Amino acid sequence: MSTVCPDVVGKWSWPELVGVPGRTAVATIERENPTLTADIIPPGSFQPTVILCDRVRVFVNAGGIVISVPNVG
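Above: the chain's sequence. Below: its structure in C-alpha cell form.
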C-alpha cells in the first residue's frame, strides 16, 4: 500500500521499470493498474508538488530511459 495514497487499489510502485524505455514503462503501468494514468516526464520539465493519487510520473533521461522508480502520486 502507498503511504502517500492509501486508497490506491492494486499495484502502486514499479521498481522493475528503472532502466527500460519510458513508453514501455507507461504501457506496463497502465496495463497493471488501469485505474492510473502514467505520464512521461522529460529532463528539465517543471513539476508542481501536488500529489494526485490517480497518476504516476515516469521520469526519463534524455534518451527516454526511466531513471527513478515510478510511484503513484
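Residues 36 and 54 are 5 Å apart (CA to CA).
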